[in-house]
Amino acid sequence: MRLQYRPDIDGLRALAVTAVVLFHSEILIFGKKFFNGGFIGVDIFFVISGYLISGIILGELETSNNFKFKLFLEKRARRLLPGLFLFILISIPFAFFSLSQIYFDEFIDSVYSAVSFISNFYFYNNSEYFDAPYNLKPLLHTWSLSIEIQFYLFFPFLIIILWRQKILLLKVLIILIICNILLIQFGGNFSKSFPFIDPFFKFFNPPVHGTFFWTTSRIWEFLFGALVFIYSKKYQIKSNIYISILGFFLIFFSFYIFSKEIDNPSIFSLLPVIGTGLILIESNKKNYLKVFLENKKIVFIGLISYSTYLYHFLIFSFYEGLMLNENHNEIYIKLILIIISYFLGYISYKFVEIPFRKKSYKAYNFFYYFVFIIILFILSIGYFSNHIKKKSGQNIFSNYPKINFNISPIKWTGDEKIKSFSDETKRNFLIIGDSHGHDFYKILNSSINLKKNNEFMYLNLEIYHYLKNQIQVENLKIFQQAKFIIFSSDYQNNDIDALEKVLNEVKDKNKVIILSGHTADYNVIEKPLIDILMRSKFSLNSSQMQKKLYEALNKRKIKESVKIKQIAEKNNVIYFDKLSYACDSLRRFCYATDEQNNLINYDRSHLSVEGATFFGKSLFIKNFFNNLKF
After folding, report:
1. Residue ranges of the alpha helices (H) in 571-618?
2. Could you tell me whether strands 574-576 and 583-584 are parallel, antiparallel, or unpaired per DSSP bridges?
3. Are both 371 and 428 inside the same structural domain?
């Protein structure tokens, strides 16, 4: 069962990393995102790792009847750690100059977690993969490396125990894979206390340890790769071109249909995992698909895939944060960034990865010392850079002593859980949307004037999800009681695509619909005013701050609001311009602070508690709702 080098596996790696790069680039072609499911490239990597690691371990056991665990880990470390460490060192100065203190502090924590190989658990506790603003979390993608290293620590022992009994090993792998899939799909329906099974049993309900970042939600993908290797070596699979065709179809079909809306990982993840397994198992004979994967240029991309994976995310995360996404030539800029990603991947592969694998390399015999020293160096750089950053941040605050920078984010409180309106004499408004809708709900609910004759409630639901949950939503008492439905969201492409159908469905329920545009969204890293003050070489007065905020408005969001307004007019529903209470387009300014000089915005598009209270007094909002003739 000795593992032979297969260039087609590097070709498969090329396919996986290209999918991931295109996914994070978010290139729009004719207004549509392609490779919405590109993130499953990571799942492909996991299956490949399981396949290769099984071959390495079994090859050593069957050749020498012995397995040197320490040597195995050292070889894995030589492949992964030098590139990772250099990447982290390079990312620190980028983060230092582009992130404000709050987010740089979080970034340093992510550095510590990455060099400790637990970043998957860190990001589980601190962010959502699909909802995280990439520019604020440039090491987010290291979660997958941590899982891979964790896999190396325990998987060899399973093989060592059962390697002489291949049929038993296959059975154990199959049982573990099935149990793991069932865990991530249904595990949340079960509990240790009576009645043990959730009476509202859901088709997809993962437990905490079955969610995106957890090692226990990904182990089955590595095990599937191991299963494919052992099965293909024990039973000679007759070559069949249709096996490869089906494998390619399942992978590309997954690239096309998968998106952040699909539950992941879940039973649906079987599609790309099985597809990868079918390509790996079809290894004996040449066919035109294998010839494609073994093309020298494709194989080369596969060889540099690891380093490319590291650097592409850093490049696109800082691109997103540097106010470059308003460029009319965005697609060309992103194509250039993709090329740069592959170029940096090549440089890292040639000058970092390859040397550390060679015994002739001077640092080879001192690898353990190298790892120890570099980890200490990274930790020290992180600590001292964070200390310097805090001092520079304090200078900003001291330059503007009248401004209160210590503001609070809007938090979820008990009133969001109320299931019905309480006063039938008032007009009932139900706000449906995401966190932007929640901000708008807090604005309206803070207005003493509006609450005299109106009652506002909030339902946390993405616009796109309305159609998927239509029966449940329309059966809610709070929906049935509401005379007015307000849609307020940070509209994504899926939301806008579904908007007209959602409006028509709600109109059929005799509701008065108010469709809001985007809120004021700024092209900054985090708190808009802090970001602008840190970038400014001179002190700014209040008027200059407001004008700088206006200049920093996200023009793409403004264009989308125009499109949303057109949809409202086409479908004869009321449109509400949320930008009008935050900014004055005639005088070209946006409000920066309230009457007490508290920051209005907590981040680039969300309000502070103080900001919600301030806009609750807006004459624009008051006049709009008081003039509604229903």
Report:
1. 579-582, 609-615
2. unpaired
3. no
